[in-house]
Amino acid sequence: MDEEIPVDVGLIYEGERIRKSNMYVDLAGPKSKGAELLIVAPPEEVEDGKVEVVGPDIDAMEEGGRYPLGIFIKVAGEKLEEDLEGVFERRIHDFSNYVQGFMHLNSRDIIWCRVSKDSAKKGLKLYHVGKALIKLYKSEFDVIEKMQVTFYTDEKAVDEHIARAREVYEKRDAKAAALKDEEVDVFYGCLLCQSFAPTHVCAITPSRTSGCGAISWFEGRAAVKVDPNGPIFEIPKGEVLDPIKGEYSGINEVIREKSNGAIERVYLHSIFDYPHTSCGCFEAIAFYIPEVDGIGIVHRDFQGVTPFGIPFSTMAGQVGGGVQSQGFLGIGIAYLRSPKFLQADGGWQRIVWMPSQLKERVRDAIPEEMYDKIATELEASDLESLKEFLKQKQHPVLERLAEEEAEEEAAEEETREQEAQPVATLPELTLPAQGMPVAGSPSEFTITFKNAKIYAEKVIIRRKG
Ligand code: SF4
Fold it and tell me: Does 334 sit in the ligand 1 pocket, CB within 6 Å?
């Protein structure tokens, strides 16, 4: 692609996985920290083509090491608008993955990058990744007239960058949350993740931000304007089939077509029956806990285990790939703030467990009366302690559980009664009692039952002869 970049750059490297055995360094990721941010800036604040690395670049990092990473991109252009920031920011994922020996996962403040030994040996540096990004963005989007990239690996600089990025994410999410599904005629879809989850089609509505959290309805709209043939497209809303579950004929039709018929129906606001598919770069997972009839939420940053005894990574492996998984749903954290958050399943009244860090982060979205009733890893580390906590706090799921148990008992009772129904009721039944040893009685006599009811475990009718 460019003589100054010491490795190949191209679409063929997009799905490249760098295993631990071939890892030179890990950047950001679950055991470190990082964030990516792209903003639209005034032209005078963007130095076109500039790439800066604040902190050690790859050639100054120790092999096998783990370092924090911030990626900060500024773009300028007459036709650019703020709503495009999230869409362009999401493209850091695929464009940086075009660089041979550089792997980028996830989005926003949960990015995780890895550099391979082979590419590090060839001299690949973050500086080169920045140069490749500028070329790829500018060749794909004419509207970007100027672009500069800064990488942070210095810990203090990364911390400052993460704080700045989170402020911007919150501002974008708040804008999206102010609009309702009912107020628009068109939704948006995204196919970016089909490169690794071939049947996954994201449906993006005002009340449901994408699973990666990076693309809201506004950003979808802006993306279609500048790139009408790109991976983000319009979905006509169609008929509202179920306003509570969030089922729309328009979404069903488009998802059926774009998933090649693999997915027939989608509920936007439920984890049951026809939940939205999950790709793999979702920020969190909502998961059903049958033992308490409640729903837990775990986010990517959480290092511990859920009450099921498994961590996020194990659960993500079972949920992702573009399939509908009953009782599991990959979500963006902004969806926790949606007024329609899992409304078909009971919303916050049904949430029983989430990591303390996430609970604190979305405190403002949790109804006040529910906040103390939701367990975290500090109170409940397994199903037993979770049940105990919910009992102590009189969580509303207990009522559901009690109702369900009562219904089950009633059903069992009915079954028992049905089992005890006589298989025959006869006004009179006379049986010969030949051979019955009855002391002092004549050797042949009959026994007559009046209004006899016959109960039997099994009735076998055999044809004679
Ligand atoms: S999670 Fe959805 S919106 Fe985000 S990049 Fe993937 S397909 Fe697009």
Answer: no
Distance separating alpha carbons of residues 176 and 208, to the nearest angstrom: 9
For ligand 1, the distance from its centroid to the CA atom of residue 50, given in whole angstroms, is 28
204 CA: nearest ligand 1 atom:
3
pLDDT tens sequence across 238-295:
999 999 999 999 999 999 999 999 999 999 999 999 999 999 889 999 999 999 999 9
* Token reading at 117: 């030994």
CATH of the domain at 118: 3.30.1650.10
C-alpha of residue 196 to centroid of ligand 1, in Å: 11
Q: Are residues 187 and 320 in the same domain?
A: yes
Please check whether residue 28 lies inside any domain of the structure: yes
Cα of 215 vs centre of ligand 1, distance in Å, is 7
- Is the pLDDT at 402 greater than 70? The verdict is yes
Q: Which residue has the tokens 């920045």?
A: 130
Asked whether residue 72 falls in the same domain as residue 160, the answer is yes
Which two three-digit tokens encode residue 246? 């969030």
Quote the strand ranges of 321-418, DSSP E.
328-331, 351-353
Residue reference for tokens 């008929």: 239
Taking the CA of residue 200 as reference, the ligand 1 atom at the shortest distance is 7
DSSP designation for 322: S
**Nearest CA, atom 4, ligand 1:** 212
pLDDT tens-digit series, residues 109-141: 989 999 999 999 999 999 999 999 999 999 999
Ligand 1 in reach of 92 Cβ (< 6 A)? no
> Would residue 110 count as lying in a domain?
yes
The residue range of the domain holding 443 is 424-454
